[in-house]
Amino acid sequence: MLTPEKVKEVLKENTVNLRFHARGGQGGVTASNLCVEAFYGYGICQPRFGAERMGSPTESYVRLSANADLIRSNEQVYSPHFVSVLDPSLLGEIDVTAGLPKGGWLIVNTTLDQVSIQQIVGRKDISIATIDATRIALDILGRNITNTIILGALIRVSHIFSVDELADAIMRRFVGKIAGTNIEAIKQAVEDTCVYDIGIDPDFTTDNKVPWQQVDLDLPGYKELDLAGVWYCDEDVINVGSDQVNTGSWGEWDVIWDEEKCTDCAQCWYICPDFAILRKKGEDGLWHMAGIDHFHCKSCLNCLEVCPVDAISKKLRQGPAACAVPEEQEGGN
Ligand code: SF4
Ligand code: SF4
């Protein structure tokens, strides 16, 4: 089991590597910045953006060490010791445990229990921490920003910095009430985190770099394509395009349309960034609102904001958090 003393010793001659998986707009990069700002030694962080589109998968990387010479790499973190996942829907899309060694930590914002997480990622040799950061964010911050809250779970299992050190970093970055509520939410997260520790510490001295990992869309890679790695989005060549991407898995809300209240003003249709407002031609020859395409609705809530008659509402998808360690193994607490 990692202790603050053990981690301090590791940091003298090694790096501790972190990787954050989030969706565009969730603040994964801010979380990685805060780790560097809260850490007493030396640190570096870099982001990697994909489609640069709100809701698309992003990654950010952090290297921390008490030895300044060990963090001078601009390469992305291929061998993380701690992986934090801000959005549970990423678990099925990205190989989030790529490069995570035996005994490494996977920290997930989820209501799922650790057994379910093990099954989804197909790993029984890693330690898992879960936190219902979405619920804490909605209760304390009033909006679903979970990036600082997941750091509470990270503190609980990693000991790389303390709550007070993180609170100082937050007060330097945010002002007034925002800083106060974030610190309150972090403290709540430290308390609420469900921990399943397999009792094996990750090896901080070896590199588990895997050469490539990316969103799996069952598409050919650049090596299989003749056209210099360019995807030509002609359906006769490759059936690809944003209509193939299940952006409906990106958000935390179910968006509900009330046909009775709807006045067919089409304001929601104009503002929807994902063409998720369905319309159909009526017998009168005009186009009418017909519902919401939940495969593509990423619950940005723009339509809910603009609807003048409250014909659109939202319902939180997730249920209450569960905490259940795998029965066949010891070490849960
Ligand atoms: S919440 Fe509304 S505006 Fe946003 S993607 Fe869904 S249908 Fe479109
Ligand atoms: S904005 Fe509201 S009233 Fe207008 S079409 Fe959309 S759901 Fe109907």
User: In percent, how much strand structure appears in the residues?
Assistant: 15-25%
| CATH architectural arrangement of the largest domain | 3-Layer(aba) Sandwich
CATH homologous superfamily descriptor of the largest domain? Pyruvate-ferredoxin oxidoreductase, PFOR, domain III
Q: What is the makeup of the main sheet?
A: 7 strands, mixed
CATH class of the largest domain: Alpha Beta
Instruction: Give every kind of bound small molecule, once each.
Output: iron/sulfur cluster
State the total count of DSSP E strands.
11
The coarse overall form would be elongated
CATH topology of the largest domain: Pyruvate-ferredoxin Oxidoreductase, domain 3
The total of helices stands at 9
Strand order of the largest sheet: 2-3-1-4-5-6-7
- Domain count, please report it: 2
Cα distance spanning the termini: 11 Å
Low-pLDDT windows of residues: 227-232
Structural class: alpha/beta
In round numbers, the mean pLDDT is 85
Radius of gyration: 22 Å
